[in-house]
């Protein structure tokens, strides 16, 4: 498979998982949260400083439809992660023909 | 396993943030040699894929869910240094954009997931790869075993932080037992996802897989002797 085809397929798969499949994810507390609830130290958790953010808790503020809200947040997250991480990895990569 | 603000006191969180920052700085230097024109985009894709799959919580036991951590997956695909950076980027974006994980706890989470889980997972991967038959499928199996154990390893990191600086006073041994048990279960899901994801990349572009490439180049060196 060509590198470009490979990268594009991986990106589309990520968009699909975060944009569509994410709606079906379990909403039960995760491992740490459950342990904190069972043992009791969940009481010490503070509200997240960004909990009023536009994308807080993987939903777009103001979008009523849950499927749309989660999906859009996922798509934004995938694009943001893709752009920022690829940019940073390119910045620190070994430059071709570099003397170092 | 994204730690919210408040579980661990600020001095402890600050100390782990310093350690995490040092780990990230070392990883930036270390990743340079494994990242080139071909592998830098794969590293970006790995971070992106991990972000996406981390949204997919799967049920593990009554009333509990887990999701991929991706540390072992990333370490095998792009090498441990780049993996530390990939998971760190995901954790920072999750905290900043999605309010997932507290900002004051970011150093704690980066320490557990980007450093412990990645390096412990990579160590297990190398060990299993060494004793397994020299086949392509062994790479996926070694990655899956690494994934299985990397999750309780990260959970143990949290227990260490809890023991040092919890704001609550519940017994450490109770937290240890509960964290390891729950996260070993989550590790099974982690192992399955990692097995198939590594297998898919090996099937389409095995030349890009760091943990596989390494083996090929070692064999070449031996052949030249």
Structural write-up:
The complex is a heterodimer of chains A (100) and B (225). In chain A, 53% of the residues lie in helices and 0% in strands. Chain A has one domain (3-92). Chain A starts with a helix and ends in an 8-residue tail after the last helix. Chain A is extended. Chain A is built from 3 helices and no strands. With 100 residues, chain A is mostly helical. With 225 residues, chain B is mainly α. In chain B, 76% of the residues lie in helices and 3% in strands. Chain B has 8 helices and 2 strands. The longest helix of chain B has 34 residues, at 172-205. Chain B is globular, with a radius of gyration of 17 Å. Chains A and B meet through helix 1, helix 2 and helix 3 of A and helix 1, helix 2, strand 1, strand 2 and helix 4 of B.
List the helices and strands and how they pair.
The complex is a heterodimer of chains A (100) and B (225).
Chain A: H1 3-19, H2 31-39, H3 66-92
Helix pairs in contact in A: 1-3
Chain B: H1 10-32, H2 39-54, E1 58-61, E2 64-66, H3 71-78, H4 80-98, H5 106-131, H6 136-165, H7 172-205, H8 210-224
Antiparallel strand pairs in B: 1-2
Helix pairs in contact in B: 1-4, 1-5, 2-4, 3-4, 3-5, 3-6, 3-7, 4-5, 5-6, 6-7
Number of domains of chain A: 1
Q: How many strands in all of chain A?
A: 0
The percentage of residues in β strands of chain B lies in under 5%
Q: What is the general shape of chain A?
A: extended
Which short descriptors sum up this protein?
heterodimer, A: 100 residues, mainly alpha, 53% helix, B: 225 residues, Arp2/3 complex 21 kDa subunit ARPC3, two-stranded antiparallel sheet, 8 helices, 76% helix
Short description:
Chain A has 100 residues and is mainly alpha-helical.
């Amino acid at each position: 498979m060509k590198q470009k085809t490979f990268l594009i397929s991986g990106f589309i798969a990520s968009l699909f998982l975060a944009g569509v499949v994410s709606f079906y994810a379990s909403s039960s507390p995760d491992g740490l949260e459950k342990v904190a609830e069972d043992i009791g130290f969940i009481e010490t958790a503070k509200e997240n400083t960004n909990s009023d953010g536009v994308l807080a808790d993987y939903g777009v503020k103001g979008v009523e439809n849950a499927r749309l809200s989660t999906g859009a947040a996922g798509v934004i997250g995938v694009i943001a992660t893709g752009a920022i991480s690829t940019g940073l990895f390119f910045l620190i990569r070994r430059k071709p023909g570099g003397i170092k | 396993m994204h730690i919210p603000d408040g579980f661990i006191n600020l001095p402890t969180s600050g100390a782990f943030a310093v350690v995490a920052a040092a780990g990230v700085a070392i990883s930036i230097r270390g990743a340079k040699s494994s990242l080139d024109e071909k592998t830098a985009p794969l590293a970006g894709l790995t971070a992106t894929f991990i972000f996406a799959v981390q949204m997919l919580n799967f049920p593990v036991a009554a009333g509990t869910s887990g999701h991929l951590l991706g540390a072992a997956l990333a370490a095998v695909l792009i090498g441990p240094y780049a993996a530390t950076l990939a998971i760190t980027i995901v954790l920072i974006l999750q905290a900043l954009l999605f309010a997932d994980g507290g900002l004051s706890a970011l150093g704690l989470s980066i320490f557990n997931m980007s450093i412990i889980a990645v390096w412990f997972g990579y160590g297990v991967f190398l060990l299993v790869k060494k004793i397994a038959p020299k086949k392509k499928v062994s790479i996926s199996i070694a990655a899956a075993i690494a994934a299985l154990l990397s999750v309780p390893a990260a959970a143990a990191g949290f227990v260490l932080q809890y023991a040092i600086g919890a704001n609550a006073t519940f017994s450490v041994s109770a937290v240890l037992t509960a964290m390891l048990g729950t996260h070993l279960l989550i590790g099974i899901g982690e192992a399955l996802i990692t097995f198939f994801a590594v297998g898919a990349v090996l099937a389409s572009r095995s030349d890009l897989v760091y943990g596989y490439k390494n083996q090929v180049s070692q064999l070449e060196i031996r052949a030249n002797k």
